[in-house]
Amino acid sequence: MRGSESSFPNKKKFMEKRLPMEIITAHNLEKYFGTLAAVDGISFSVQKGEIFGFLGPNGAGKTTVMKMIHCVSKRTRGDLLVFGMDTDRDPRTIKQRLGVVPQENNPDPDFTVFQNLTIYARYFGITRTEAEERAEELLEFMQLSEKRDAPIETLSGGMKRRLIIARALMNEPELLILDEPTIGLDPQARHLIWEKLRHLRSLGCTLLMTTHYLDEAERLCDRLVIMDTGKILVEGSPAELVKKYAGDEIVEAAASPEIIACLKEERVRFEVFGDIIQVQADDPQIVARILMERCRRERITVRRATLEDVFLKLTGRTLRE
Fold this sequence. Notes:
The protein is of the alpha/beta class. Helix content is about 35%, strand content about 25%. Residues about 1-5 have low confidence and may be disordered.
């Protein structure tokens, strides 16, 4: 690799694997815990070589879906295929072709950074020589070579996260599943991981992720779904969803009875969120002029609409535990 991602290990293998275009196919998928429908009849597909996101508030069902996909939880009803295979009938074969990055950082504290990778490779029947070669390449890929022989307790949170991703890549997975890949990281570490995930996609790897960072989903995902109470509310690319549900730009001003009355009189549609008024605007200059000249509002904010606006509009602003 020698300082360049272009020599990422086994790029040719990634590109030459003969995979179905739909890596994951779900139809009327359900998962019940007693009488609780954690996943309630959802259908979706994930295409080869894309980054696909699952978004939703706590308890939406997204983690349950991920567990069914990587074969640690059986479905109650419906169909779920990964690589064209049934997750309940062929879990061992599917798992051999997956990489999983859990939400928690869980490297083995009894081994060095390098040993964490080579020992993990044994689960996949990888020879010692090949495991050591892959480990060296992945440590360089994740910018951890200087920590090769370091004990785990000396690593920062960002280093541990990069190690967990490197570990998930040891078996050269065709599908990489990431649960909150950058949780708790500083901006520099987040951007480094984003860069690595985009590079994996460029090699033909398919990525499935959950995240509570809406800017992360907007930057990384080719397509995504937003879930709530076990159902899929919307599906599409981030840009499509923002355009459809939040418009081009948002005009914000402090809420007051006078402003509300003025906007109603001017027949401007708005929403009130706490002490803020928001107006979705394809032409924000017109709305801004109304607020300043007719509603006598001097301080306003005009900003680009984001995926967070869509998320809050569809799932609400009430805190979920």
